[in-house]
Amino acid sequence: MEYEGADPGTVRPGGRTARVRAAVLRAAGDAMAEGGFAHLDLADIARRAEVGKTTVYRRWGSVTGLVADLLTDMAEQSLPRTETGSLLDDLKANARLVQRTLTDPRQGALFKAVIAAATCDARTAQALHRFYETRVEEWAPCVQQAVARGELPEDTDPHEVIRAVSAPLYYRFLTTDGHLDEATADRSAQAAVAAARAGVYTRRA
User: Fold this and answer.
1) d(C-alpha 158, C-alpha 56), whole Å
2) Which intervals hold domain HTH tetR-type (predicted)?
3) Using CA atoms, how far apart are residues 108 and 66, in angstroms rounded to an integer?
């Protein structure tokens, strides 16, 4: 989620518990990217991670519990926002990060699997919502700073602007076979900025 961050399990510091969690989450992410949510199996993930099945069952309890923890880990490790002093450049950086994430073979497949799982599993859906809430909250200050600089109306809702940047990219990713390139990402950012400047995302609107 550079899926809007580093690969799961690669940043967390030492300790056996942390190493086990990192290995299991990496294995879970690989398994989801390869076969989707429906084929996840805790015993297979334990084998991939080279840890005991008992450890995995005791700590996570279920596939949905493991996926929820994977999403938590992805949110915790996501890359910080870019601050350039220009709203358009900030949001282009955001859009390009989303674009790179979704077009990465492993990460794109992982996100498709997680989104599919969230449509039929409430716990996964809650975890996915928390993931995106974390990402939107991380990037919202770029919009708040633009308001302070006078680039946008004072009552602009920063969270709605950030959502408007990535929403077209996810729609294209999930509904077409079209190539998702940097030019597409830049257009998404430009459209969000133009709409924000026009007052579309003010709270009164």
Assistant:
1) 39
2) 18-78
3) 19
Alpha-carbon distances, residue 40 vs 60, 112, 130, 182 (angstroms): 13, 14, 22, 33
Residue 134's region, left for phi above 0, alpha for psi from -120 to 50, else beta, is: alpha
Distance separating alpha carbons of residues 86 and 109, to the nearest angstrom:
32
Strands, E assignment, 100-192: none
φ, ψ of residue 13 to 5 degrees: the values are -70, 175
Query: Strand, coil or helix: what is 154?
Result: coil
Q: What distance lies between CA 204 and its chain's CA centroid? A: 29
Q: What is the pLDDT along the chain (205 residues), one digit of tens a residue?
A: 344 544 433 444 457 888 999 999 999 999 988 888 888 899 999 999 999 999 999 999 888 889 888 888 887 777 778 889 999 999 999 999 999 999 998 888 889 989 988 988 888 899 899 999 999 999 999 999 999 999 999 999 999 999 999 999 999 999 998 789 999 999 999 999 999 999 999 998 5
> Encoding tokens for residue 165?
């940047």
Collect contacts of 105-109 with beta carbons under 8 A, ≥24 apart. Answer: 106/29, 106/30, 106/33, 107/1, 107/2, 107/3, 107/7, 107/33, 108/173, 109/32, 109/33, 109/34
Q: Which domains does the chain have, with CATH numbers?
A: 16-74 (1.10.10.60), 79-197 (1.10.357.10)
